[in-house]
Write a structure and sequence with these properties.
Layout lengths: L2 E5 L2 E4 L4 E8 L7 E7 L5 E7 L5 E3 L7 E6 L4 E6 L8 E8 L7 E2 L3 E6 L1
Length: 117
């Protein structure tokens, strides 16, 4: 049974930082395309950061230079380091694993990130 457990959300002021974690069980994250998505109130799902099986990363323009996706293969955990947070980053964030880029065959539960101005 695959589980992706997300933690690390919370409330911060603009300019602050948070680190999200996605602990995986039932799959080996190094063998999957892993990604972080978010969904803001009233908006659709947005893919924001992804890492492929050879550690190539990609980011949507709105987070490029501020967010960093990484993974610890030994611990089987995916991370999202978020710096210089803005109110527009307020959303529910969740991780996903798939067999191709930005695919989400498996999805973790969401965690709320709220950034106040």
């Amino acid at each position: 049974q695959v589980q992706l457990v997300v933690s690390g959300g919370g409330s911060v002021q603009a300019g602050g930082s948070l680190r999200l974690s996605c602990a995986a069980s039932g799959l080996t994250i190094s063998r999957y395309f892993m990604a972080w998505f978010r969904q803001a109130p009233g908006k659709g799902r947005e893919g924001i950061a992804a890492i492929d099986t050879v550690d190539k990363t990609s980011y949507t323009d709105s987070v490029k230079g501020r967010f960093t996706i990484s993974r610890d293969n030994d611990k089987n955990i995916l991370y999202l380091e978020m710096n210089s947070l803005k109110p527009d980053d307020t959303a529910i964030y969740y991780c996903a694993a798939g067999s191709s880029s930005w695919a989400s065959s498996y999805r973790g539960q969401g965690t709320q990130v709220t950034v106040s101005s």
